[in-house]
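Title: Prediction job returns without error message
Component: structure pipeline
Severity: low
Priority: P3
Assignee: unassigned

Description:
Job completed but the reporter wants confirmation the result is attached to the right record. Sequence as submitted:
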Amino acid sequence: MIKTLSLAFLSFFIITTLIAQDKVLLKLKPDLNNPFSQKMHMTIDVNAGAQSTMIDATMLCETTNTNATDSTLTYATKYTEMIMAMDAGMMTVNYDSKNPEANELSKQIHEKVKTLLETPIVAVMSLNGKIKDVEDLPDDNDLFDANMLKEAAFEYPNRELKVGEQWKATANNKSLGPIEQTYTLKSISAEGISITSEGSITAEGQTVGSITGQYLLNPKTHYLKALTLETKVKNEEVEVTSKIEIL
């Protein structure tokens, strides 16, 4: 009898443990003062009939979590390198932050991005991923807007999720309009937490584009390890396709 009960309890423990591994509460677990590096690759294809433009950019950055409370995390991101190539048909532009004096156009671009390379961007984020505030935004910066960071934030739901479960979120983009997305928890493993998203972009009550994403979170800290995000926007005059990868 005792042996039977022991086996029963062991089976119950194994089953409940396996079930628990299929559920997760997504919440950032701050790792303070331990810098980590990320690489972002972005392509933008603008098709405007006879006029088309291709942009290929790579940015390297280092992020350090500097402070944490029971509900928020403060972090600083410093961009360390930027490389960009633009092909606009009759004109091509190449920029490398390591060689900003290469030509006159490169100098002009460097003037717009140098503050991002010199000064860290400090942001305050809730532990469910929502950007609450952006501090110490570099002055004379033409490329970075605090709203960009807030709009791009990947917000977690405040509830435990099972594999296959979904949640919805809407971000209001100043340029594109409301972006509604549905997120799906695809899997939980030692490699990471896999999440996919798909959604629509609307303007003046009409759907003008689509967005799809694949996210991989660190299974212990729930920080973003990798990302692929693709958007397509089209109107009567222009079609824009963009892809962002975090590696």
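Comment from assignee: result matches the submitted record. The longest strand covers residues 51-68.
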